[in-house]
Amino acid sequence: MAENRFKPQRTMWSKLFTYDHWMESIGIPIHRGFYVEDLRTLKLGWWEERECKSAFIQLAGQEGVSSARVTEIPPRQTLPPLKFALDEVVYVVAGRGLTHIRYDGSDVKKSFEWQQHSMFLIPHGCTHQLSNMQGDKPVRLLHYSYLPLGLSAVPDPDFFFNNPYRSPDELAEHEAYYSEAKMLRLPEGDPRGERRVYWYGNFFPDMKAWDKLDANASRGAGGRSVYILFPNCEVFAHMSVFAPQTYKKAHRHGPGRVIVIPGGEGYSIMWEEGKEKVVAPWHECSMFVPPNRWFHQHFNAGGAPARYLALHSPMQFYGHAEKVEDRAKDQIEYPDEDPWIRRKFEDELGKRGLESLMPEEAYADHDYEWSRTMGKQ
């Protein structure tokens, strides 16, 4: 099969993985660094086998864990059928289109339409086609999967692409969730954790508009969030919304989480403990990845609510930041933060003719409780 063009030598302790060699073999751009300013304008190259323009994104913190790729579909075009062995999350960066999904030899098929800021899951083992329904503009899609981990376990791309193995017919289970995702609210005291609001399904029509969120007081800024779960899938995500002219507490966790901005204007600061800070500016359709165990902090420097969508790495890389007992080492409270953080935020707002809405008490009281009304749209 044409996908497998290389036989890389596997070397112990190497920081280059099979996935890295495979990316290089394709011959399209590979974007590295700490952030992508705008996925809508990212430089792409022609991928002959996929019959489209595309580019890989491997930011610091993704290496060996998660895969990100941008695909562009020309107006009124449909990409060739592709079978992929892993679950893949697709976020619509720009445009409007259609997805067809089927399993080999099965009578169960599904087609659904999507638009900018939609998100959907392509289940593992199915054959899919992606179409641009617009006649005058290209479509851009962001694809996310755990392919680097898969290729480290089985170093053969042909195992993952267009493999003739027939998956069990699971599409019937998925089918109901392509019409409309459902909100689930867990009861008080549920053992599955403190996050009580979940968005469950395979198709999410507009990540920029969803407003059924729950308070996330531990991160500050009056933020609200929702966890996103897919049927029969270990990939998951969450989305957070927080108020204008505020910022969230610094925290850290494991590698591989891709963060996309559906709406808002601001920046994030990322740093390894005791080392220089990196500033990642963002707006609609920006993307960044906090590197492994780096502190990072999100700042809404605009006059409207901001939101970010985090596509999570596997639970094996989750880290400790969500555990109450570990917050002392994995989260920095406002009174303990570097004073430069606050000064920079106020300076950035000043450039926009705005003032900070951070309560003064938050900088003095470790137990300060944010109003539940803050962060709502």
Structural class: mainly beta
Q: Please state the CA-atom Rg, rounded to the nearest Å.
A: 21 Å
CATH superfamily of the largest domain: Jelly Rolls
Q: Helical residue percent? A: 10-25%
Using the alpha-carbon principal axes, give the shape.
Answer: globular
- The name of the CATH architecture of the largest domain is Sandwich
Number of helices: 6
Q: Please write the CATH class name of the largest domain.
A: Mainly Beta
How is the biggest beta sheet arranged?
9 strands, mixed
Low-confidence stretches: 372-377
Compact description:
The chain has helices at 18-26, 147-153, 157-160, 171-175, 327-330, 339-351; strands spanning 30-31, 35-36, 45-47, 52-57, 67-73, 82-83, 88-94, 97-102, 109-114, 119-122, 127-132, 139-145, 182-185, 197-200, 203-204, 214-215, 224-229, 236-242, 250-251, 258-263, 266-271, 277-282, 287-288, 295-300, 306-311, 331-332. With 377 residues, it is mainly beta. Mean pLDDT is 88; it is low at 372-377.
Structure overview:
The structure is a single chain. The protein has 377 residues and is mainly beta. It folds into two domains: 153 residues, Jelly Rolls (Sandwich), CATH 2.60.120; 184 residues, Jelly Rolls. Helices cover 11% and strands 32% of the residues. It contains six helices and 26 strands. Strands 2, 13, 14, 16, 17, 18, 20, 23 and 25 form a nine-stranded mixed sheet that branches. A hairpin with an 8-residue loop joins strand 16 and strand 17. The C terminus is likely disordered.
